[in-house]
Amino acid sequence: MKKTIFSLFMILMTMSFVQDKPKRVIFFGDSITQAGVQPNGYITKIGELLEKNNQKADYELIGAGIGGNKVYDLYLRLESDVLDKKPDIVVIYVGVNDVWHKATSGTGTDQDKFEKFYQAIINKIKANGAKIILCTPAVIGEKTDFSNAQDGDLNQYSNIIRKIAQKNGVPLCDLRKAFFVYNIANNPSNKESGILTTDRVHLNDIGNQTVAELMLSLIIKL
């Protein structure tokens, strides 16, 4: 009896000194996410915000972005780049190229295929037990008078993602809405870039900081 009590005591003591493993967060996307791990990228900035809040040890941040990727590219590399790494949280940030490449190279993604591939990604991630955050594509041009060439398509694809988020009961980081609100307030000259982006699409320092703050506010709730 004494040995049993002593053994239980030792197990409890050992458990009290074992720290919980940090939550592994994988950011899954295109060139915007690929740049997110750079010194001023949004993933790096999330790490800095966590450190400022004394929470850096609680999270492991992994970038899984590849330039030019569309939703079906993410589906094809989901196993190797995400699921095999056993994430606790996956942040999906895709859609810009699915829209943009329609105009630049005729290789975009039709809306019905976009929705099907997106849902298939979510199904696989959920089956592996990870939590998910979805992001709407922010901008292809920062003009606020709806004269950016891809505004109509971006709004449609963002609506698809909003619908998918609601259907699956997962958090939504609505970057499309947030960037528009910011530009309305901070882009009085109706510039097509230079407010939150460097080139109409990729993020500048303020854009990266904005994305970092919005994403982190959702990550810490999971």
SSE layout:
Layout: H1 2-17, E1 23-29, H2 31-34, H3 42-52, E2 59-65, H4 71-76, H5 78-81, E3 89-93, H6 96-104, H7 111-127, E4 131-135, H8 151-168, E5 172-173, H9 175-186, H10 205-219
Helix pairs in contact: 3-10, 7-8
Task: Describe the model.
There is one protein chain. It is built from 10 helices and 5 strands; from the N terminus they run αβααβααβααβαβαα. The chain has helices at residues 2-17, 31-34, 42-52, 71-76, 78-81, 96-104, 111-127, 151-168, 175-186, 205-219; strands at 23-29, 59-65, 89-93, 131-135, 172-173. The protein has a 5-stranded parallel β-sheet, with helices on both faces. Helix 8 links the parallel strand 4 (131-135) and strand 5 (172-173). It starts with a helix and ends with a helix. Residues 14-18 have low confidence and may be disordered.
**DSSP E strands, number:** 5
Question: N- to C-terminal separation?
Answer: 42 Å
Query: How much strand content do the residues show?
Result: 5-15%
Uncertain residue ranges: 14-18
Major β-sheet, in short?
5 strands, parallel
* Multimer state: single chain
Q: Please give the count of helices.
A: 10
The SSE order reads HEHHEHHEHHEHEHH
Q: Give the strand line-up of the largest sheet.
A: 2-1-3-4-5
- The overall average pLDDT, rounded, is 93
Quickly give the structural class.
Answer: alpha/beta
Write down the Rg.
20 Å
* Relative helix content: 40-55%
The coarse overall form would be: globular
